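Trying the structure run again after the queue cleared.
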Amino acid sequence: MGKRRHSGVGFGIVTPEGNEADDPRVPRPRKPGRLFFANPGPTNIPDSVLRAMDRPTTDFMSADFIEVYDRAVAGLKRLLFTTGEVFIYTSSGHGAWEATLQNLFSPGDRILMPEAGYFSHVWGAMARALGLEVEMPEADWRRGPDIGAIAERLAADTAHEIKAICIVHNETSTGVAVPLPEIRAALDAAGHPALLLADTISSFGSIEFRMADWGIDAVVGGSQKGLMLPAGLAFTAVSEKALAAHAQARLTRFYFDWTRMMARRHRSFTGTVPIAPFYGLLESVRLIEAEGIEAVWRRHHRLAEATRRAVSVWSGNQGVAFYCADPARRSDSVTAIRMPEGHDGEAVRRIAYDRFNVSLGAGLDPLGGKVFRIGHMGDLNEAMLLGTLGVVEMALRLARVPHARGGVDAAIEYLGAG
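Done. Tokens:
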């Protein structure tokens, strides 16, 4: 039998012929120190949030828990900059997408969903499966939606057949962020009544977002990124205009029905309310507000800019490059790095994980192997980021990927000057 050696998520079995295959039956051996989790979600969970959730089961209708629930939801609204209704679900962000579509539209309604990347396509596929007509104007994934083209389409829709624009605020697969106030301005300039829906799953709690000020009608978010919680809790925040649209919506729904939810004390959940996540959410809100939400946005921008300084250096010698081709739209929560022709991003990820205990994000769907991603959101500081960037530079070297050296030095110089 061949010698076992570590590879990927488990051990690899090396056969006498030299072929290696992962064996999921054998656990990955523990490495000293903490795993540096630099994926663009889920993100690191602060110790105090973990401790807050470590509690026995209690009655979710008890006065003690209802006080925690109400305080946590009030904090969530403050961070969203809204006083509107918030519906919460036991699901990932995909469940919140589905709930939002089901509660706002009727069969055959037309929505405009500008192409942005992998997640805009998934959202569009979901809408079609629910019986909606989806217009998806093509866009270069490296640049994101063309706001001028969106404005032209809205101006041409004089019959107001388009019921909503659905925008991914921060496309996690590409590292491209879209300026939402410009989308609202296009709607207002056209005098168009369409709802404005925003997916903030990888932007909320990391990148500036102001629901009421920006005229957003429905916001989809999740627990596992900027909120620094485990995956499994998702939400939709809605405006009065969206609630009025809900009253006329006729898509089939039950578990996700907002009308049913509003009749309950918690104004969310059709069934059992999960207890632990709300103790965690309350602590997460406390941590964010103790730092200050605007300070949180500035910290994310600072760490993202340090990452960009490193990538800018690495991109010399016709090596790796930014996937996002528009510097003004480069995300403050995730950076996608494009591989040179003939090189595999998965090789870089495997080296980082196997040898150095750093987990990076993979390329999704058509970008598989063509990019890898560095998540820099949530509970993160300079030391954690520099450790990640140092491992990325080592992994690029070990994978023999063309790049210029000195990216980490550029990040240190930037962070050390501020």
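DSSP finds 13 helices and 17 strands in the chain. Worth checking whether this holds up in the mutant runs.
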